[in-house]
Amino acid sequence: MKYQHLFGPVHSRRLGFSLGVDLVPYKYCPLNCVYCEVQKTTHLYVRRQEFFPPEEITSELADFLKGKPELDYITFSGAGEPTLYSKIGEVIGFIKANYPHYKLALLTNAVLLNHSTLRREILPCDLILPSLDACHQDTFERINRPHKALKAAGLVEGLIKLRQEYRGAIWLEVFIIAGINDTEEELDCLAKAIRRIKPDKVQINSLDRPGAEDWVKPAGSRILNRVRNYLAETVSQPVEIIAKVEPGFDDASIAPDLLGSIQATLSRRPCTAEDLAGILGIHINEVSKIMRQLKSERKVSVKREERGVFYSWIS
Ligand code: SF4
Questions:
Q1: For ligand 1, atom 7, which residue shows the shortest CA distance?
Q2: What's this model's pTM, rounded to 2 decimal places?
Q3: What is the reported pLDDT for 253?
């Protein structure tokens, strides 16, 4: 069976061996983050919708899970915002009813958590990983470039409501862009919000693949350590910097025939990750992870053009 909604399982930095489930079409998202590693949002969207019949997703899950694979998590993520899918509750219910031994994780930008229906639908998840990069509206707009209906204050309030209703674990991610949200004023505002949200832990992240905008650069370890220390002193939750995957960690996941197809394609002409996903028939997130590994091994070069980030094979 060819999967449209499943990708991986992949080794994830935070979730171990994780099967990805993509619930929305490519780049439907309420945000257009400058650091987005899936590239620019093409559909800046806030209306929850049944993009696909839920049976389309649950039949893929049933097919994949019949082999009883060992997984650390089944994770709702992908190339858009999973909570936009109005039937997420049905998919969660299907997994919990039929495969209760698998743990469920949700990666979300959290901007729709003010919807009480959505919060109810995601309660059965074992782990929710929301993002919060800024509390000041101008900084939120600069980093996350939200749909005009969204406010930073509303994002924080949604997270507070989630914490009050949800019994599972919340790991809050803060993506740091040096010079924008690492100042004392920004961190102070974030710390105040974190104290109200009460996540189980805070994870500090930074760029490690090309982002949507060229000017976004990885924050160095000095900056990340400073941010971690500042937050660790001002909130009561554990604060950690998300470690990078060791080079070669994903080696086993690149099948030799897939590697051969990628080499043959990229030797002929440069392609974006999206192009490759279409050509190879695999999910964009899987392509992105493979490209990151090939880049670290210096097998591919990267060039940014108007249409996106292009990869070429280095012969
Ligand atoms: S990083 Fe996530 S929330 Fe931001 S634009 Fe990309 S998919 Fe949307």
A1: 80
A2: 0.83
A3: 58
